[in-house]
């Protein structure tokens, strides 16, 4: 008996060492050697599998299985979400949402309006694209109303960041939902519920406070609504790659419409686009997939199996179907209705795909890394350790994501890795708790953005702040989002 216990202890130690070496390989390759995260995750999986004793063939099989399942469940959703985001940006719909909300708001309520507008357009848009769309408008509004820039900028950034970390169809939440077999509709509903107080506290409340102590000094050309080069610190995306939306030469994904107050609107063929889509149709289009997925979740809660209405909602609220419907509707309400030709609509839809190809590959490699962790048995070891330490599963998921986030600077890599590590823990949780675990990981993935995070430099350069000022404002805001998100998750856990 003692011999068996000793052998089990030795085996567990080897698995923990294998996990640490695999994660360390990913972290060092990304941060030190500047290897692309896609390759870093492949190599990290190889180290993990071989050290854990899976053997070369089993390691390759596990990784391939994880890649295939992740692409099938997540890649399609990311692509469809990006298409809606591309149409929203190219048609001028995003500009219409922001300017309508801001234009009908008093100066005192502007921070709240900016946070709401950012959260709304942040549903289909990736964080970096949202920043490029919103910042010029924030700068112009701040100049015209004489409101401190960060009092408007922090709420806008908070709205984008919270949606990026908490709410599908963003890549991080989708990967965690897939890895943990969480209910997407329930996670979406709880994520939106959690996002409201988080955006208020980290955005409007903190923005009003920090704007008294930090003064942003944006480049003069940007302040006039024109985009300039970001300078010495080239912006990168969340995964550490050069960010194509950061420079004026490549802003097509950030709004070719170029309406009033929008920086750097690209050239539009004469007679092709004559008007922006209306505010109400644009909002309804953005929210349509969300409404369909939420309706499915409500139907599962309130209607019996076999009910005809529930069967219809199950189909329409399927994430792929909901986003496909949203894409088709967007082609009509954002594309054709705004005067875009069929060719331009096709360009907007197709043009949204190349920028996300790297993200899809990284997410797929992350799925392979996750599957290697699972097949090696690392998750079971961590589950046993967490049970022995009486540590909350939700807190553990958050802590793991925080550690990877601080080390790599990537919220997506943090979410992928943390979801893989805590996957076995989800088996013992009920549906609401699994959804909350997804949100806890998402909250941890945005903790304290600093100098190894590309978003840090993007915000610093756009707002003309020093490194210290960016830490006091942006980094603290991200930390508030993370901590408030965890507190919200724990409170919801008590209520559900």
Which characteristics define this entry?
single chain, 73% helix, mainly alpha, 496 residues
Summarize this entry quickly.
This protein is an all-alpha fold and 496 residues long.
Describe the 3D structure.
The chain is mostly helical and 496 residues long. It is 73% helix and 0% strand. The chain contains 21 helices and no strands. Helix 11 packs across helix 12 (308-316).
In angstroms, what separates the terminal alpha carbons? 42 Å
The largest β sheet comes out as:
none
Low-confidence stretches: 1-8, 220-273
pLDDT averaged over residues = 79
The chain-level structural class is mainly alpha
Helix content: over 70%
Order of helices and strands: HHHHHHHHHHHHHHHHHHHHH
Beta-strand fraction estimate: under 5%
Rg over C-alpha atoms, rounded to the nearest angstrom: 22 Å
What's the multimeric state? single chain
The number of helices is 21
Count the beta strands: 0
Structural domain count: 1
Which shape, going by the Cα principal axes?
Answer: globular
List the helices and strands and how they pair.
Layout: H1 2-31, H2 37-51, H3 56-90, H4 93-103, H5 110-121, H6 127-145, H7 149-166, H8 171-180, H9 184-210, H10 220-223, H11 279-302, H12 308-316, H13 319-335, H14 342-351, H15 354-376, H16 378-389, H17 393-408, H18 411-426, H19 431-444, H20 454-463, H21 467-495
